[in-house]
Input
Amino acid sequence: MKRKLTIAAGIIHRPSVLFLDEPTTGIDVASARSIRQLIADLHGSGTTILLTTHYIEEAERLCGRVAFIVRGRVVRTDTVASLLDPVRERQLLELTVSARADTGTGLLSRAFSEARFTAVEGGRIRAESARPLPVGPLVRVLEEEGIEVIEARRVRPTLEEVFVQTTGLAATTLRTEKEKK
Output
């Protein structure tokens, strides 16, 4: 409620510029959605908003321009669209497997040399290619070796991936930072 009151006090006079520092941190889902909608409405009505957030998906959804800041230094600034352009053409699949993911990456790398396979946390294999990857043949290669595929899904490249590429900070580091907040 204090956060909502602070935001209300900040917008009551209809400022042309509004600074918001982590407005959705530590609040319930419904309130966070309301605040994100309010931010979008304010921006739509012409208010310039400077938003700081550790939630990269929130920045991707709400912001036109983004600055990546690491240890107090701006490392990259651009529009969300420009930041996403280089990764939009990549084809990404994520496979959740029953066995060790690193075993599956070796099998898939040998069978599909045009793609790059990496093991990620949680027993997942990430497949990346310049061309669309067929799911069926990937699953067959793994299952023929006794590795059960629990889930296979296409992944849309995100601003978080651009951030990780730009800064070198791993996704696990980002989650740890969010949890600290």
User: Anything to note?
Assistant: Helices lie at 2-11, 29-44, 56-62, 80-88, 101-111, 135-144, 159-167, 171-180. The chain has two domains: 2-85, 91-155. The domain at 2-85 is CATH 3.40.50.300 (Rossmann fold). The first strand starts at residue 17 and ends at 21.
